[in-house]
Amino acid sequence: MRLPSPRGPVTELLFGRLVRPPDGHALPLDVAGAELADPDLQLALFVCYELHYRGFQDVDDRWEWEPALLAARAALERRFEEALASAVPRPAVEEPGGVRRALNELVAAAADPSLSKFLAQQADREQFREFVVHRSIYHLKEADPHTWAIPRLAGGAKAALVEIQSDEYGGGRRERMHSELFRATMRGLDLDDSYGAYLGQVPGVTLMISNAMSLFGLHRRLRGALVGHLAALEMTSSLPNRRYANGLRRLGGDADAVRFYEEHVQADAVHEQIAAHDLCGGFAAANPSLAGDVLYGAACALELERLWAGHVLACWESGITSLAEGAIGGVSAVRTGKEGPDVAFGA
């Protein structure tokens, strides 16, 4: 993919530099006071992180480890971590043996904005397409951020993570990789299934979900938060995905389009137990001082999901698009991946 359009002064400066070769000059990015979901902050951070994944056609790969960019990214990360800390109360530190119980309590107490119920029962096809556009930012790289933890773990926790990730990557079969299954869902909804196709059309509240995973994954000091984050995703996945599958079938989705959601209903019911007990429980037992980080990572996953789902539902209830301002809904459009005009979402 190519760099998207800037969202403000930070991305304006950053992108202007990234399209040129690295020159060693400092990148003074000012994000003081930026809100958690600020689109300028989140897009800048997402682009910095993406250089560690697949990169951009118009950005020299040498930028990935350019000291000036790493220093600028550190400033973005500091503000993101500060905003996360303000938005997500840190759960009480548990004894390592109590981590699984504490995870279950966090999940049980998590607020449910009922987005999955809306998609199952009420959403029209264009709203479901809009939902899939949001999700494409993570699902087209599904599992990659959490895979950063593999070389940072040992023993039973490492084996548990590899077991989960093996399923995410289709057990070595391309057609069963979850990212490939999601591409089939996108094609079934006449959406562009190419990697990052909609990066420029999602709001900061969507980008912050992926950025939290990358933040936790790229810093060894946050490995506890990363495994807790993964556990929260697995523990809250099966029921919503069953609803997504039902909603897409209601709207005429065929077997290929629905398979991604059906796969998660089955796989994540198993992953839930592995992630909570073997991964998080084993990690906390081996790293008692990081038990609190495990719970914090889980709390971040749950709260960011709640904020995102609340944003989507609030926009739809107001009759407007939940995507980035000016991107969809009669102002601009979403490419269908086919020849012909763009297709605009309607609420």
Automatic annotation (TrEMBL):
Domain of life from the UniProt record: Bacteria
InterPro entries in UniProt: Haem_Oase-like_multi-hlx
Annotated protein name in UniProt: Iron-containing redox enzyme family protein
Species lineage: Bacteria, Bacillati, Actinomycetota, Actinomycetes, Streptosporangiales
